[in-house]
Amino acid sequence: MTEEIITLDYGSGGGKTAELIEELFLPAFHNDTLNRLGDGAVVNLSGALAFSTDSFVVSPLFFPGGDIGKLAVCGTVNDLAMCGAEPKVLSLSLLIEEGFPVEQLRRVAASIAAAAEEAGVEIVTGDTKVVERGKGDGLYVNTSGIGTVIYPGLSPDKITPGDAVILSGTMGDHGATVMMAREGLAENSPLRSDCRPLHRLAKAALDCGGVRVLRDPTRGGVATTLNEFTQNRPFSMELEEEALPVAPAVQAACDLLGLDALYCANEGKLLAVVAKERSSAVLEALRHTPGGEDSALIGQVTQRAPGKVLYHTALGGCRVLARLAGAQLPRIC
Amino acid sequence: MTEEIITLDYGSGGGKTAELIEELFLPAFHNDTLNRLGDGAVVNLSGALAFSTDSFVVSPLFFPGGDIGKLAVCGTVNDLAMCGAEPKVLSLSLLIEEGFPVEQLRRVAASIAAAAEEAGVEIVTGDTKVVERGKGDGLYVNTSGIGTVIYPGLSPDKITPGDAVILSGTMGDHGATVMMAREGLAENSPLRSDCRPLHRLAKAALDCGGVRVLRDPTRGGVATTLNEFTQNRPFSMELEEEALPVAPAVQAACDLLGLDALYCANEGKLLAVVAKERSSAVLEALRHTPGGEDSALIGQVTQRAPGKVLYHTALGGCRVLARLAGAQLPRIC
């Protein structure tokens, strides 16, 4: 690379764009499909395919446990895994602000490559745009992905009263870490984003049978995802405060910032709603899979208050866990 | 919608995000796959698939002949069509700046829906993020898409000396229009972006046989795409200035702005390199397809200066048409 920062020329589609692709991206992501560099990639896949897209605008770009690159790969890989699919290929589109350091771009590219390798996916096609200083915020990343559906038919419509609600670990680690990092308070704390690919945990749960639906509770957290499940459906979900796993550092960060871990983003956890008779098997399978050691049964599906999520506090109270209208935490992913 | 402008709450993943999706996007793009609203869409496709992504940062967002929404659909549809594929499904990811008018978002959504219908594709999955005022520029759009490959094996590696180079119409209409619109000079001129889906033109050419490669000359224009074909390959391309179609208004705009139409972006033209014996058939087929009426044979593949694009001027001179290093026109798409 002939420059130390990204200039508008790198988004021109001309020689500078080619330099960026050939000297930075191809070496990082090298695979035969990407190397062909046509207008698109050609891949061989068949049958029911999952297709998902996500743009990432997290601030700061680098945080304990990850960065925007790892987040962008895991985010789309996880959306595919939640569809019951094996993630196969990703596209990568970068929106870079003029003046962004090439060195940081290299770090993000390395992080994307590492996360893709861990998740077993290839970056097969991409795009780069550069916008003027003040028209972006360093770097925004979009990934889209395709996976082959191995376990068809997952849907919240399959949820039945009596089902168990399982969470694959502690809540709110990503959201709390990013918020504290934004205040410069995360470096010397034990806080780390939980950002990780969930394809192995999803497979472990699905192989047990009885899984009605999977979802990764990102923006809006566990409370929002459960509300999406119950809304306009003929069942309620009831959670037990004491059953909800929260890391002490996350609880402390939430107390400090006035946040609720139930609404904090996760980037490496899945929620599984499972037929009661398979719930122990799913819980055991998750606990024996890396990243799922702290999996917990957090609640049940009931008919007590259809459409709502009920929350039983440790003190014996019960309240409705509302869906948030707006932003508890902007730009968390 | 309860607000007239987009606030950060609309990107929260909570109730406001749901409102945006349910009241604005679902009615605009309604289809069964999108309506299911999981983490991703499940689609049934088989065999060789083309997969492409593109982010759009055009300024201004609205210009004669199109807007960022139409551009985003056509851009990805065209990348798929250039792979010899029939475009099938698109993802849509919006990156909205806080304060963006809901009314403009509605216009863009309507434009996306109309372009998708014309191109025969469905928007099956999406994502919305909102960034703070001053961290974006109104609206950025990413589309990714999947198509089924109908005509496999297109590649610049297939190009052979003697082949014909065909362009499906006039050069530089999109680039010249956007630049003039940025200066406020396009409204009362005959300039219009050529933005359109190219799937029918691609099919018309490919059905004739003999097509080596297709490419839509967007950023960097015809000159840049032809340089991508010749670079490090054992042939040259020779163009005739007099054979290159340029609309008078585009030529006037280029003269005014000091631009060269050969390097100006097109968003509704394709370049086809075709075996000589099929070139008349391809030219006729393109001319009889809407949007291809002004198709022209613009040059030949030769062995005169391998790796280079040569340009024969109307006055009898000959020069090398270089690849631009950087930006002639930033943020044109």
3D architecture notes:
The structure is a homodimer of 333-residue chains. With 333 residues, chain A is α+β, with helices and mostly antiparallel strands. Chain A is 31% helix and 26% strand. In chain A, the strands form three sheets. A seven-stranded mixed β-sheet of chain A has the order 8-10-7-11-9-12-13, sandwiched between helices. Chain A has a four-stranded mixed β-sheet with strand order 1-6-4-5. In chain A, α1 runs parallel beside α4 and α5 (173-182) packs across α8 (248-257). The two termini of chain A are 29 Å apart. The interface between A and B is large, with 83 and 83 residues. β1 of chain A pairs antiparallel with β1 of chain B, so a sheet runs across the interface.
What is the secondary structure topology, with strand pairs?
2 copies of one chain form a homodimer.
Chain A: H1 15-29, H2 32-35, E1 41-56, E2 62-63, E3 66-67, H3 68-82, E4 85-97, H4 102-119, E5 122-131, E6 139-149, E7 164-167, H5 173-182, H6 199-206, E8 211-215, H7 221-230, E9 236-240, H8 248-257, E10 271-274, H9 276-287, E11 296-302, E12 309-312, E13 318-320
Parallel strand pairs in A: 4-5, 9-12
Antiparallel strand pairs in A: 1-6, 2-3, 4-6, 7-10, 7-11, 8-10, 9-11, 12-13
